[in-house]
Amino acid sequence: MKPHLVCVGGEDHALRIPFLMEVRERGFQITAVSTCDGASFLRHGIAHRRYGFDRFSNGSGKAGTIRALRGLMAELRPDIVQSFDTKPNLLTPLAVRGQVPVVRTINGLGWTFSSRAPRALALRPIFCGLQWLASLWTAATVFQNRDDQTFFERYRLLGYSDKRLIAGSGVDIGAFAAARHLGPPPARMRQELGLQTAEVVMFVGRLTRQKGIPTLLKAMPKVLAKRPDARFVLIGPWQSEGPFAVDETEIRRLGPEVLVLGKRQDVPALLGMADVFAFPTEYREGVPRVLLEAGLAGLPIVASRMPGCTDVVQDGWNGYLVAPRDADALADRIVDLLSDRKRAKAMGARSAALVRERFALPGVVEQYCDLYRSVLAARARGGLAHSASAGRIAKRRLGEARR
Question: Which of 56, 124, 126, 362 has its CA 20 to 30 A from that of 275?
């Protein structure tokens, strides 16, 4: 009988459909649990269940979400649970509490450790405490970059769980190539968007302050002063980003040199018309999927020197790394790439080769499946009793702390 893997994530969980399909091909029964409607999963024959939480809240509603997840796990009866994203990673182990082995993937440390706002600084000790507590009901923790692994080790947030370093969730190279082939050719897309022979600098991601959009906006006039034919194309959700969203007037005031396309389903084809990919994030990323796709499209990349980005971009080899919030450095490096097209093309080719070698989906999935088999084998040997014991210890320590 196939082991049943339940994979829990947030609103972007559908991006992991290729990952889940590959895991299914390797002998697992799959159920996805997410906060989205599930239509995308069902189209690919993946069972889906929905739960709800507000990703912008930091307090209310968590107890209800834990109860909802606990009820889903009792109904689905998985053999192993995989969680992604900050809040699911915290809430899933607390819901399961050692009844089923949980594997968590730390895909970045999120807003709390990216922002310098007083609220974020105040939340950091709480975050660490919750991570420690969740770790006591976690069978294994996967890190996407060494910076996050070092952080968890330094602050002893791993509890009794095993640890693995697996670079990203993988990119489906064949599906990416097919999507580019099925889309309009770059010249037609440029024509339709009014870009014609412009030098296109592209960003893909949430249009938020944490993703560095204000820094990119400050860099734009500096780039245009030296490369007047440059145009900036911003792709990603905007209105859905609540308090983190960049105000529309900040973008519109820059005029026709900036094109905002919003959330799109044809990103692989759109990347084909770009000359440079800019990613000035201030966010502690896992391994940003958009950097893998930009690399696979053969684009030279200018990114912030932040965890996750440094796992994809090697400064001066396949792109450039700049300090976060440094608009002058960002502009200078974009201009360098636009001015030296031969070097930019060579860097883009190296990006494509790097992604194919290190981040291809089959290799990443094989590492996960090896981990799942190891966790299941430990459970069969009675390893789950250790997690349950850890849970009892956690409850006792919580009681002592409250007294």
Answer: 362
